[in-house]
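Sample entry (240 residues):
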Amino acid sequence: MIAEAFPNSEQLFQQALVSRDPVPDLLHLLKTHPTPSAVNDLIIAYTDLIDAEPHRGPSLATALVRLSHSIDAPKLGDSTLRDAIHDDLEDRHFRSSSGLDNTIFGPKNQYLIDSLLSGLSLRDGWASSKEQYAAFQAGLNSPSNKEVSKGSESSEVLVMGTCIQLLLCGYAFVTEMAGSYQMKKEVVASKLRMHKEGGTVKDPRAIPVLELALLHAESGLKPENNRDDVWALLFPVELK
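Predicted structure, serialized as tokens:
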């Protein structure tokens, strides 16, 4: 196990991230410990919090962006804080699940949580990796219920992972940002329509989100139509 950058660093970063105004506390910790290992602990705290409480994802992501843009952000050697966060976060997507590890649709499904983290990272410019684009395409290309004889529980999870990413940052998948994974908007819409008509998605919470994703694709995946509230739409029970 890698030692923490300073005593209780991950716990202190988590406490700061969920505070009413995270940035001042985060800045204090990083100014006191302006090292790459401290940034690493910050990112561990961030991703662990999203894993444990995904409904906090959008607010946590906003805090990270505000922190990186602060005029008081410390330098870390020759790197800016934003560069250090980018370097640490860019390879943390879809590392722990294949999409088939857990076929049960719900707020604890790791693949769906990974999709949330990925969509937030694409939206905020932290990461743009082949793993993220491959996961997006896996959902589009997964078989619908019409194409399989024993149901498609794993397809439902894969499709909804794609919808989460698409609603958070749909344009990333149809612009040059995606590189060799770039798709045409019409193809994305067509594949989502296939899943809607094929009954791939059965959960009553998920069907309206699939329909919203399809509408987003049909209207051109414009950035102004992105939805930060996709997780709350899927799992409103978490918002107590």
